[in-house]
Amino acid sequence: MSSTTMKSANAVAHEAAARLMYRCGVLAQCTDQPGEILRTFLSPAMDEVHRVMRPWMEAAGMKVSVDRAGNLRGLYGDENAPRLLIGSHLDTVPNAGAYDGVLGVLMGLALAEVSVERKYPFAIEVLGFSDEEGTRFGAPFLGSRAAVGELHGSLVECVDAAGISVAQALMQFAEQRPETVEARLSARGAAYLEFHIEQGPVLESKNLALGIVEGLAGQSRCTVELHGIAGHAGTNPMRLRKDALAGAAEWMTGVETITKRFENAVATVGQITAEPGGVNVIPGIVRCSLDVRHAEDSVRIALVQAIFDEARAVASRRGLKADTKQYHEQPAVRLDASLVALAEQVAGQAGYSTIRVMSGAGHDAMVIAPHVPSAMVFLRNPGGISHHPDESVAEDDVAAAIHTGMCFLDEFAAHLERENRA
Ligand code: GLV
Ligand code: MN
Ligand code: MN
To answer: 142: which residues sit within 8 A by CB, 6+ positions away?
Structure first.
């Protein structure tokens, strides 16, 4: 690219970045919970996001649809051409920030918009996945799993707080929305590209706008229940109690101690409920969630086992009963080496130094990658704050990502040709 074209690409990227930031603010108003950002699988707020995004996508020349798993899809270009898939998720954690997921979907739209003057021999399909966080059903990636034909088995038996299963929610959605289309990705998908805020402090600490993701840590989601005996808080001497919550507290400090012995592993107990839940009643049953992650699957599996063993050991010392269950597992993935190299190369072309990073967070790319060659680009995340209303990203860094994405589009056709020849 000549320096004049570079300059104008840069200016185009900055304009597109300002639009993208504005749109993140608009979508942040779509929520299931007034006063905070919350959007869950197939919820009214997800529907609202689709209604807001549709005209933006149509104005960019896209054919827009919603599929049977609630994923928003926009096709820009010839439907018979190979497709570059660009996307991320539109759902959120409770009390979320405005950029996790949404930014990657809007990046796809922005890149289609800035491509109007260019003729590429591939189409761009923008994907706004309906569930990556697992907020409603505890099990993550429901949207991308449906897109790769993996939404079945025990996953569709998971139930939400109202006792509705994934299968029932999908059936109800299909009845209410007969216009929805097949969720499976087209076989024309040639590559998947996801932009996402880093959700951590590494890029900021190195003063870099962008990072190139090489792989993503695997994760296990589990439940641990401790069963004791509920009883009167005033009449039962301490030595005669079978207090499930006191047992859970001991187990949780064990989770911390054990996990620190496994280098680079993380384990989180994020939800806990105690029954019957009276201030003057000894807790009889405690249910805890458990999220365990590591870049090596064998280490993660060994850690889950050690944490389960700890629950049984605590239970046996205290006369409780422990039930442990892993209900979801996502293996670690390496992203496509040649696409990773391409992402690194085009970031350089756009004028940005990058480093390669591993992601501890889960992303839709880890579900798509075994099916479609995939790459991810991280954007610096001030303070590393994410899954929090203070989550942010700098407009200049969004411009850096858009400029990099524009160079990616320019190089992608040649990349496809090289891959087809190899
Ligand atoms: C999603 O953000 C996750 O990593 O759990
Ligand atoms: Mn998230
Ligand atoms: Mn995310």
So the answer is: 41, 69, 130, 131, 134, 151, 155, 166
Answer whether 361 contacts ligand 1 (Cβ < 6 A).
Answer: yes
- Give CA separation, 248 vs 151, 161, 296, 393, in Å: 32, 22, 28, 38
Q: Is the dihedral of CA 160, 162, 167, 171 positive or negative?
A: negative
Contact 133 CB / ligand 1 (< 6 Å): yes
Whole-structure pTM over 0.85, yes or no? yes
Q: Are 135 and 91 in contact (CB under 8 A)?
A: yes
Instruction: Count Cβ atoms within 10 A of the Cβ of residue 176 and give its class: 0-12 exposed, 13-18 middle, 19 or more buried.
Output: exposed
Q: Are strands 218-227 and 285-294 parallel, antiparallel or unpaired?
A: antiparallel
| Span 267-301, pLDDT tens digits | 999 999 999 999 999 999 999 999 999 999 999 99
CA of 89 to the centre of ligand 3 (A): 6
**297-351, pLDDT tens digit by residue?**
999 999 999 999 999 999 999 999 999 999 999 999 999 999 999 999 999 999 9
| DSSP result, 346-412 | HHHHTT--EEEEEESS--THHHHTTTS-EEEEEE--GGG--SSTT----HHHHHHHHHHHHHHHHHH
- Strand 83-89 versus strand 123-129 pairing type: parallel
CB atoms within 10 A of CB 313: 14
Rounded to the nearest 10 degrees, the angle between the axes of helix 337-349 and helix 395-421 is 130
Tokens of 163: 């006792």
Which residues lie across from 63 on neighbouring strands?
75
Residue 293 CA, closest ligand 1 atom number = 4
Nearest CA to ligand 1 atom 5: 362
Which H helix or E strand runs over 342? Answer: helix 337-349
